[in-house]
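Troubleshooting: if your tokenizer reports a length mismatch, compare against these two reference records.
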Amino acid sequence: MKRILILLMVAAVLLLSCKDESSYINYTWDDSTVDADSDGIPDIAEVDGTSFFGYPLFEYGARPGIPDLFVHVALMNPTTTDAGMMLQEKALDRVVARFLENGIALHFDVGNTGLYKEYTEVGTRGVTRYNLSNRSHIFAYNKSIFLAENVLDGSPTGYVFVDEIKAAKMPNNKDEIFYFMVMGSSQQSDGGNGSSGVAWNRPGEGGNEFLITLANWGLGFGTNSTLGLSQENFENYVVNKQASTIMHEFGHNLGLNHGGNETLNYKPNYYSIMNYLYQLSGLPRIGTNEWDRYYYERFYKSSGDMKWADLMVKSYPANYYDETDPDYGYGELTLLPIDFIDGPFSSTYNMDYSYGAGGSLNENSLDESLGLRQSASGDVNWNGDVDLNGDEIIDSSVSENINPSNDTVLGTHNDYNDWANLIFYYDATAPSGRSLNYLEKVIFVEEERNITSIPFERSH
């Protein structure tokens, strides 16, 4: 019932017409401010006829009683052939829907240009769910981008920086309400494939800026035929990769780490899009091949052990050979995790923050029959043992490092309730302290990873 009520409230916003802004009663913070939903916006500024720092948030969709999060999106003008840079409407739809299911209204302001349905730019008019400002948020293409010059190693040249873009494309007072997202190009100095994103996250406060960098990730026009994928599979892949990366980086702004409340990464039982094990491949379906992401990472991708690879991957076309192709060139054969259930090429792709429902996994004594320790979990062969017939051996107690991509130490891994511990930056810092010195911030740069390009040597 609560979800239905929330959906009705949000839908009602789309029917509102713009008012004369001179009629708004403007509110700011004072000692008597009431913010019952703890979103950093006074309740009185979430009712009709009011504004907050000059912005009509009720008209934008804000309501008292439900946390409202606003994100201003600046978009780098994309190259004409790279779908990774073209912000997909469906990607935002999926992120918004996931937050709404958890009682949080997320509002993106993309402006009136730069949003895409597949490869076609969407024209928008007036106040809609993704066009709140009714102005262009586009800025010029540049091959390299990062958060700020003073946090980039060395003496960078040829970069543009998020803080500079923010100063140029976002009104100063909007920073009192809106997070700032940039849909950019690459963090690499040469503009090549690299980290998918980067975000600020100060312990106890989170952050308010994040950057998405999916240029040259093999998402160019015509890539689907090169990979042997259907157009539908490829379009799902673009949308899913954008959606999961946005949700992951925004999660850092909301105070989440790669292990939830810790930086420990690749914990299989941490059932969250914040976990590198699931960020780009999606969450496994519990009880049905819930081991597939783990086996892929643990036995093939990390160690090169091919014995499990045929369970969840398909070979790149054996006759493909193009030494001029930068992604799939000479001497490389690529395997795709296309058989993952609810995987990145699927319309049923599952991305979420964790609810903390998983049990602990003690690497010194793992009961493989308990799997990921979620409700209805099936077994997971943590050490990959098989008998003489090639059948898996499921042990009741085995010692195994199950996150070797992170460390070599045996310990106990715990799940974490992400949703119950989100930090709303503007609530944590309201009514003052919203402009943090860069020296006080903590930066999260994602590893350089791409699940579609996993080369190994072949004879030729």
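Reference record two:
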Amino acid sequence: QGCSLRSFPSLPSSLVMSDGREVLSKVLIDADNDAINRRDDDEISTTCPSESEASPRTTRCSSEVESSHPSSGESTNDALRKLKQKLRAKTDRDRQAWLRLQHEDLVRGERAIQQKLQREVLERSQQDANARRLQAEVAHERGHIVAAGQEKDDIKERMAGRDRQQGELCRAMQQKEGTRASLQVDLHREQQALAERQRAEQERQRRIREEQERRYREEQRRLYERHYTRCIGG
């Protein structure tokens, strides 16, 4: 339908039609005004034919004009012009009311779109905040994992050092055991040698004593024989 869009200065420069097309408001204004003028002319020509036509419709049109404009001094053209003006004024009011409703719908739609965009922006901000929070938590957990891995490596290194110390201690103990066994063998050998020397010394002492006893007996025997011979000879 035709629209007096110029009466709405806040109306956007373009409108989106029901089929999705975007049309400039000026194009709509010009097209609607042309259509309204043609429709008004068609209504008047259909409702009130020319004066040359002699028909009951002419009588009805004249009666409508006369009833609308009771002044008998006015011509039919003046009555038609006034009727056309009334029809156009009524059509303009209807158009303005329709435009007002359309404008309100557009404002509500724009407000709804803005609210939807605000909600989407808020949701996106919330999602971004959640994503940043999750990233921070992941980084924090990754730090814990890295620290745990470092601690695990430190524990492994300490255990390896302890194992090395235990290995060195075992080798030292084995060396000590070997040294002690060797010392025990040497001690046993020395003890055996000492026992042999002691037996040899005891044997030598025994022989010395036997020799001394033999010499003593021999000396006693010679002394006895000498004394006995002297006694017999004297």
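Descriptive notes for reference record two:
- The longest helix spans residues 76-233.
- Strands lie at 14-16, 22-24.
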